[in-house]
Amino acid sequence: MIKNILAIDNSAAMRQIISATLTTAGYEVTVARDGNEGLEWALVERFDLVLTDQHMPGKCGFDLINELRANYAYRTTPILVLTTESGEPFKDAARFAGATGWIEKPLDPDLLTERGALGASGAARSRQNPRAARRETPSAIRKTGQHSAVT
Known about the structure:
The two termini are 25 Å apart. Helix 2 (35-44) packs parallel to helix 3. 34% of the residues are buried. Helix 3 (61-70) links the parallel strand 3 and strand 4 (79-83). The protein is an alpha/beta fold. 40% of the residues lie in helices and 19% in strands. The protein has one domain: 3-Layer(aba) Sandwich (Rossmann fold). The protein has helices at 12-24, 35-44, 61-70, 88-97, 109-118, 138-144; strands spanning 4-8, 28-32, 49-53, 79-83, 101-104, 134-135, 149-150. The longest helix has 13 residues, at 12-24. The strands form 2 sheets. A 5-stranded parallel β-sheet has the order 2-1-3-4-5, with helices on both faces.
């Protein structure tokens, strides 16, 4: 069952759209600015679904997916790529990197929540998580020792 989602995108507007859409649907959402921050989050907390942009500074989506798939905890976790690309070469590269699937931008909020609910694999979500929040970066948590919500 999908409850806890990591969403990675270098666009602040896209992070806000994803977070607002999924939080409203009852998911707990953590956002990251790039692949490096996303990987940092994924290593300190276990997520049920990862959404990642492909084209980001630092670590691109495919590199992030490769690193996540090398980690035992993420070998079977659904990972969706958020992209403006729709060609077969891109889809082949996404599959090769280990992506479960992709969602084309601009995002359709209904499709986004449906994919979250289905876990990109067809399993239905049975209940909503009332504790939804965007959170501080893992570095900030290590410094402060707490996990506070950002509104």
